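Need a sequence for this fold. Nothing fancy.
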């Protein structure tokens, strides 16, 4: 007698869980490809986190403040007077700190290069773009791309900025970047989508 579809499903062995080489950097549990991240504020490192560990550090209220949830919000900014920031390159991101200061970074083949943004200049930029008032310190950034004719300004999670830095470090060749880095940077920005 032929088995019904339901009987065949019941007899099937359970599917193996999706395996990944990545693991939570706090508890070592396996994490899915779409896992969340925490920022180790003391070391400035982005850590992969399982859902349970990520939820332990709900905003600034949990723990000793060492780990901060990195949000997923992305918001495209229509205008932003970046020339006031004194950014010397066309590809940079700015992160605010708890003391109200702002630290600018530009991704390079050697990693992100950092410099302090003039406090008055930053306050003027925030006054000109009120959406920056709720930028979460340490874990969100203003990402600017005016390189090679682009004109994009975003509020993004810092892990996006580190992902962009990794692309540049991995793809950069010679003095000008080579043939592959700029198409990869363009693809990175084309894949950014707004999300609340």
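Here you go.
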């Amino acid at each position: 007698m032929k088995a019904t579809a339901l009987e065949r499903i019941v007899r099937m062995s359970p599917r193996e869980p999706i395996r990944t080489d990545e693991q939570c950097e706090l508890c070592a549990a396996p994490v899915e490809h779409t896992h969340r991240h925490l920022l180790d504020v003391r070391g400035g490192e982005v850590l992969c986190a399982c859902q349970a560990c990520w939820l332990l550090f709900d905003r600034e209220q949990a723990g000793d403040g060492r780990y901060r949830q990195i949000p997923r919000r992305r918001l495209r900014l229509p205008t932003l007077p970046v020339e006031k920031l004194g950014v010397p390159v066309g590809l940079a991101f700015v992160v605010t700190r708890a003391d109200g200061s702002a630290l600018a970074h530009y991704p390079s083949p050697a990693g992100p290069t950092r410099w302090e943004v003039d406090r008055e200049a930053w306050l003027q930029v925030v006054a000109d773009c009120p959406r920056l008032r709720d930028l979460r310190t340490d874990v969100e950034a203003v990402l600017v791309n005016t390189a090679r004719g682009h004109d994009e300004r975003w509020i993004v999670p810092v892990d996006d900025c580190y992902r962009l830095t990794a692309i540049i470090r991995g793809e950069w060749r010679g003095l000008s970047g080579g043939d592959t880095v700029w198409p990869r940077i363009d693809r990175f920005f084309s894949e950014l989508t707004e999300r609340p």
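For context: The radius of gyration is 21 Å.
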